[in-house]
Amino acid sequence: MVRYNLPSGMRYSSLGERESFYKDEFDLIKVGEWLQKRGHIEGLVFAVVIGRHTKIFPKRYKDDASTTIIIDEYENLEDVKSTILNFTPESVYYDRNVYTKNHKIIGQELAFDLDPENIECPIHGTLENKMNQGQGLSFCEIELKMVKEETIKLYEELLSTFSLLEIIYSGRGFHIHVLDEDSLSWSYSKRKKFANKIRNRGYLIDVWVTSGSMRLIRLPFSLHAMVSRVVTPLTISELESFNPLENERCTPNFLKQNY
What we know:
DNA primase, PRIM domain; alpha+beta
């Protein structure tokens, strides 16, 4: 089993730990508040990946461990939670597409994804260096700090174009969500052009995410089981002093018990 190199204190969550998190800590009230903030929850689609990167999964789902499983039939968030508990996944997402009642796509939430492995580390080198060693998703404390600084700079730059921005600690890196209503109607070509513009200014964003080619994004308040951290919304002032290796808000209880 490939074990990615992670900062001290971060590790894979066991199946039992995933189950206890979603039973006892997964806060549906906060999830609901976040979804209401972004609006357009009609026809919202969720998704899970059971064990693609960690290779940890219930034996009954061995054949589907690396598959993205869509959750589009549910009554309410409690129903979604029950489905998540059934899979005990390593990651939970929601679909950024905006749908009509008839499931027609009428827009997409714009988002920017910044991950630490994309940073050129003074110690571990480039992403290519790490991939050559089978460590494409590994990162260190230096890269974590550098990607945080990159996120702050990008947030400040985006304020010249947008007014409603939300920052999410994704478990490894950071997401910046744009909630301006008019941005929902941007075409694929407009999103991609803007993403390339930002990339050309030196920001290491994932163009695939911003353009909309990858429409799934991590669900706030879910568990990133590859690093045992809670996906956590942050204000820009909170981000400046944020350290996911020590912050209690993003640390699940099963880790706090070991501190």
